[in-house]
Amino acid sequence: MGKTSESEDINNLSIIENSKMMRELSDQIFHDFKNILTTISGLAQLSMIKTQSNEIKDYLAHINRATFDFRDTLDKYHSYTSGGQLEIKAYILKDILNNALEMILYKANRPNHRHNIIKMVLDIDSDASVMCSENEVKQTLLNIMMNAIDAMENSGGTLTIDIKDDGSFIIVNIIDTGVGIPEENLDKVFESKFTTKESGTGLGLKIAKDTLERLGGSLNLTSKVNQGTKVEMVFPIYDGNKEG
Questions:
Q1: Is 31 helix (H, G, I), strand (E, B) or coil?
Q2: Cβ neighbourhood burial of 215 (10 Å; 0-12, 13-18, 19+)
């Protein structure tokens, strides 16, 4: 191997130093986020004691659980970015789905801020398990469901979620009756940073598709303008005889 030049050595040192600074900054950000979540959780719990409304108590309980879920997400992401591994084990997929649903139920079956109602229809017919990171799959399901809800926010509509076993796979369909996606954009929706939302990152669908494919499944999307969008997610069933 040839000798590295002085400029290359300086460049390598700069990269190492920048990486160290980024890790330190990430540690600080994680710490600050967790402090904020502790405050939100504490106020939610205090408000649950003060309020007499059972409905508001239920909302506050969801907020409190969400803060713990977010803390768990931060811990796992921090561990992963610090060189750790995501925890992979067998989970019943419908349980992950139900946990994700709890976080969006407040948006369904009641008028939103635009006085539109999004009706939710559930058809859950699966008890099968998937070998996965629970948090990763929950975030994937949440991303797709929130996209569907956002597509119907201005007009209302129906969000249909069904889950069923099909041979060696679990099929999850998330269907909305929203604005739909123009045909010329269908090939772009899985590209990094492509989005039609003003505040979107353009990463949700790509991350979801990458997650499914890494698990040995797939994600397919079909859509028609002014009719809606269907996202089909295919998860391989864990039969209990394979090592994770």
A1: helix
A2: buried
